[in-house]
Amino acid sequence: MTAARFTPGMTVRVRRAFQPGHVRTPYYARGKRGVVERLCGIFANPEELAYGRSGEPKLPLYRVRFAQQELWPDYRGTAHDTVDIELYEHWLEPI
Amino acid sequence: MAEPPDHNHDHHHPEGAVRLDYYEAMQLAVAELLIEKGIFSADDMRREVEAMQARTPAKGAAVVARAWTDPAFKAALLKNGTAACESLGIEMGPTHLVVVENTPGVHNAVVCTLCSCYPRMLLGPPPDWYKSRPYRSRMVREPRAVLAEFGLRLPDSTVLRVHDSTADMRYLVLPERPAGTTSLSEGALAALVTRDCMIGVAVPKAP
Amino acid sequence: MTNEPGRGVHDMGGLPAGPVKPNEHDYAMWERQVDALMVLLINKSRRVITVDELRRGIEGLGAGAYDRLSYYERWIASITQILIEKGVITNDELGRRMEAVKARFEGTT
Q1: In the prediction, which pLDDT does C2 show?
Q2: Do β-strands A11-14 and A33-43 pair in parallel, antiparallel, or remain unpaired?
Q3: What is the ipTM metric for this complex?
């Protein structure tokens, strides 16, 4: 079990990485900056489970809130609109 | 098999059809082999199909109506969605439910861009459009345009929060109780709550 | 559709696409049975396969099949592939059984 590295309110950046294979970090979020909304819990690693392995060690999972304008500079809604994405800790970097 | 993207396969075989679809044959063959190998029984399979048929948006609507009429339940639901639903006797299985609340000035909507994660225990299986390329692609980038296609036009002053269901959580939108419904019973309130209201592509309307 | 390297066919958030058509259909019995099969296989008491393996299999179908197959066609294609990989069923017994099932259905046995 890993102790959670981030707490709600912290600003984080999603790592840029483009490996093949199963990941649950959407392409559109990579390299983007958001704010931790909550810690969802500690969950088995899907990138391991997908290949029939144990998924250990388990990872903290967060909901990270992104401003739409951070994700899409040409976003046509309003400045306060957001997307929340669940992300496992190894994809997040502190800022 | 050259079908355009988002083609909806209906697989309706009229009575007496003589051709069995390739994937239907695969399903039947795999199920038979697994039953023969004792992985599960034919009864297990039948019970599971029945359980799936029993899961409908009525379960989610009952949760919403309870939250509208019982502030303590609503607080519990927002704190731990799974535990609160289980307290109503709803079987949640492995689901980790997060309930997101619409309030005056904040609207929530749910998508799964990577596959089609959906709170099945409360809403049943997802509709085709939820799993379609247009919804999954556009809901995170131009959600106001997508909502408008569903007939929901949000004022600019409303904050729109889209939830991309990428991992272990499942999301249910708790809509706002419509004005003018103070005299309605919990059952009558539940009847106002459609599936689409709990995905966040619609809002409930007073009768 | 995209040619961005490292972006899976399933990873479509933000890509251009047409209007959302409000389609739905009542699931056919065979589709419900695919769903039931999956629920039984991932059940904690059996844990024959995981949802993550199902997804990995679907993502590995390739761009053509991903868009061409219906939802539950993708599921059964992936479930079957993983059961073969894991040695739960063999390719040979599957091939024979599918022919037997078709023959039964079509009334040729």
Answers
A1: 54
A2: antiparallel
A3: 0.97
